[in-house]
Amino acid sequence: MKPRHVHFIAIAGTGMGSLAGLLEARGIEVTGSDENVYPPMSTELERRGIPVAMGFRAENVLARRPDLVVIGNAVRPSNPEARAAIEAGIAYRSFPDALRELVMQDRHAVVVAGTHGKTTATSLVAFLLAQTGRDPSLLVGGIAANFGGSFRLGSGPHFVVEGDEYDTAFFDKTPKFLHYGARSLLLTSVEFDHADIYRDLDHVKAAFRALVAAMPADGTLVAATSHAGVRDVVDKAPCRLVPYRVGEAEGPGFAAQPVEVLPEGMRLRVSVDGREAGIGLLPMHGRHNAENAAGALAIVAQLGVPLADALRALPEFRGVKRRQEVRGEIGGITIIDDFAHHPTAVRETVAGLRARYPERRLISIFEPRTNTSRRRVFQADYARAFDGSDRVIVARVAEAPIYSATGEVTERFSADELVADLRARGLDALALDGPDAIVDHLATAARRGDVLLVMSNGAFGNIWEKLLARLAPATGPA
């Protein structure tokens, strides 16, 4: 029986907030609670009229008992609200189980998974299906600009969902992507990440192998097999395998080769099984986005979309908020927001914007915020990730506890050591104490023509708006 009232504990996570919106759109009353709520999800929840209680308290579920409680994976077993719901015998589910049971049943599950690129690729797959008349449903961990939100409820047979490898809930430690029943799977990349729950790369690969092994025999796996990590986990796929890549056409599967970089995007030459199949304009920059486009084009082709139709639709894709998003321009200084935090994502984002703005000074501003980036695990890799920047500013992070299910964190990331390594590579770099210090510095150091690339997966003290407020037309040298 469909619940009439669903309450979300930790509602402001991207997946949780998106599911809350989907249920509200289906006429279900939705309430929630959370801490540290910030845009874009806070704005989306407010826009939909979904009430959010600040802080976790037992009375949030006991004062007015919901039919179902959805418990987010950020919630710990000690959470008073989750404990109260369970002890009171209220029905509860994890986010992925609630999504599949309440929304995805009887739909063709199109799951997009991988260490990088899945938010953009998920949004692009749904966009191409929608533009070519398939009317898909969508849930993605970001704000898809074409849909004005993080979800879409369509009448077509396909449900496109971003498949996260992070664990499901404190009461279910399996990866979220195992819960969706994928029939079509797009696999973008497999690298080490989430050091708070995965011990090493082999542990990550084991999770992705389980995802591949669960594919039905009549399913389709579209995979970026030019990446070693992907090849390692798809070698025993029980279903049809369609490779894709960025670069030269030779070889089986789909390939997208950037042939021209324009202010409005990249012109891509798309090939299928070694033969040119068409040219399309992708309104994004960077090799990683060309690869995302190749994967999206490949999977929608397997779902029956003619490639020519998909290429005609491609120029209308407007991307995802916080992925190379221009937050504003003032005094000839452009401020760009990007979610990049893993060294691979940082490297590809910097390279993409270097190609987009070849004649302008590119200042990369980086906040190491995740449970992984605050560890030392990628210290050396970050030193090679900022090539193409003219200046790098690294935010020093507070010595706060780092959550870990894999053992005590004894070695932490050092902003000052990264700066020393970047300088040794010939890059102009400095470390500053957080967003306010960075804004103070750039208020006098930035000059007309600069591109400020801010990379963080969090609120970062609302640094973008602070920069826009402080910066004045500047023409002098830094």
Report on this model:
There is one protein chain. This protein is globular. A hairpin with a 4-residue loop joins strand 7 (137-144) and strand 8 (149-152). The model has no long low-confidence stretch (mean pLDDT 93). The protein starts with a strand and ends in an 8-residue tail after the last helix. The chain folds into 3 domains: 5-97, Rossmann fold (3-Layer(aba) Sandwich); 106-316, Mur-like, catalytic domain (UDP-N-acetylmuramoyl-L-alanine:D-glutamate ligase, 3-Layer(aba) Sandwich); 325-470, Mur ligase, C-terminal domain (Protein-Tyrosine Phosphatase, Chain A), CATH 3.90.190.20. The protein has helices at 14-25, 41-47, 59-62, 80-87, 95-104, 118-131, 201-213, 228-234, 287-302, 307-313, 343-356, 379-383, 415-424, 434-445, 463-470, and strands at residues 5-9, 29-34, 52-54, 68-71, 92-94, 108-113, 137-144, 149-152, 158-163, 167-169, 172-175, 184-187, 220-223, 240-246, 254-262, 265-272, 275-282, 325-330, 333-338, 362-366, 391-395, 428-432, 451-455. The protein has 478 residues and is an alpha/beta fold. It is built from 15 helices and 23 strands.
If helices are DSSP runs of H or I spanning 4 or more residues, what is the number of helices?
A: 15
Mean pLDDT: 93
The CATH homologous superfamily of the largest domain is called Mur-like, catalytic domain
Structural class: alpha/beta
In CATH, what is the class of the largest domain? Alpha Beta
Oligomer: single chain
Most strands sheet: 10 strands, mixed
Shape: globular
CATH architecture annotation of the largest domain: 3-Layer(aba) Sandwich
Low-confidence stretches: none
Strand order of the largest sheet: 8-7-9-6-12-13-14-15-16-17
- When the domains are counted, the total is 3
**Strand percentage:** 25-35%
Over all CA atoms, what is the radius of gyration? 22 Å
